[in-house]
Amino acid sequence: MKYSSTIANQIFEVTIDNTERKLRVLLDNKEVPVEFIRRPASNSYVVVMENRTFEFEIVRDEEAYVVHYQGRDYPCRVEDQRLIKLKNAIRQEVTQSEHLEIRSPMPGLVVAAEVAVGEKVRSGQGLIIIEAMKMENEIKSPADGVVREIKVKTSEAVEMNQTLIILE
């Protein structure tokens, strides 16, 4: 599985292959030998990488992880391939009139709108939920704005690239 991890404003591409009971890690396309141990009943981990040992704790907050290492906190955002594809699909350019069209990244069925017309939204806030292939996918706002128009209704079928919401 491929991941994009952002730590202290630095982006790392990580591929983890956990087949054949062996953990294989590619960090920015370079294979790194890793031994990964989770301490039982805790958020503490020990990682041995390139003959160096790192002990740390990982705590998840609402939108990211925080890695506690040697008395310091490092916010860490991790996104898998699926999430990256969804974000890229809904990321739209602002038109000349300063409106942002949020489009469906896939065909599916609208489960719920999480916002109302006139509501202020912030980047990363959930806007609408679409069910596709029996999985619910939350479409999040790529930018701060105000909901100008909701173009779909609950239980409506939508096509890929169909406009869902317009922000201003």
General description of the model:
It is a single chain. The protein has 168 residues and is mainly β. 6% of the residues lie in helices and 55% in strands. The protein is built from one helix and 17 strands. It has one helix spanning 81-90; strands spanning 2-7, 10-17, 24-27, 30-32, 34-38, 44-49, 52-60, 65-69, 72-80, 100-103, 108-113, 120-121, 126-132, 135-140, 145-150, 157-158, 163-167. A nine-stranded antiparallel beta sheet has the order 4-3-2-1-9-8-7-6-5. The chain has a four-stranded antiparallel beta sheet with strand order 10-17-15-12, with no helix packed on it.
Principal-axes geometry comes out as elongated
Strands of the largest sheet, in order across it? 4-3-2-1-9-8-7-6-5
- Counting DSSP E segments of at least 2 residues, the number of strands comes to 17
What is the averaged pLDDT score?
82
Low-pLDDT parts are 92-96
Please compute the radius of gyration using only Cα atoms: 20 Å
Order of helices and strands: EEEEEEEEEHEEEEEEEE
Describe the secondary-structure layout:
Blueprint: E1 2-7, E2 10-17, E3 24-27, E4 30-32, E5 34-38, E6 44-49, E7 52-60, E8 65-69, E9 72-80, H1 81-90, E10 100-103, E11 108-113, E12 120-121, E13 126-132, E14 135-140, E15 145-150, E16 157-158, E17 163-167
Antiparallel strand pairs: 1-2, 1-9, 2-3, 3-4, 5-6, 6-7, 7-8, 8-9, 10-17, 11-13, 11-16, 12-15, 13-14, 15-17
What features would you highlight for this structure?
four-stranded antiparallel beta sheet; about 170 residues; nine-stranded antiparallel beta sheet; 17 strands; about 55% strand; mainly beta
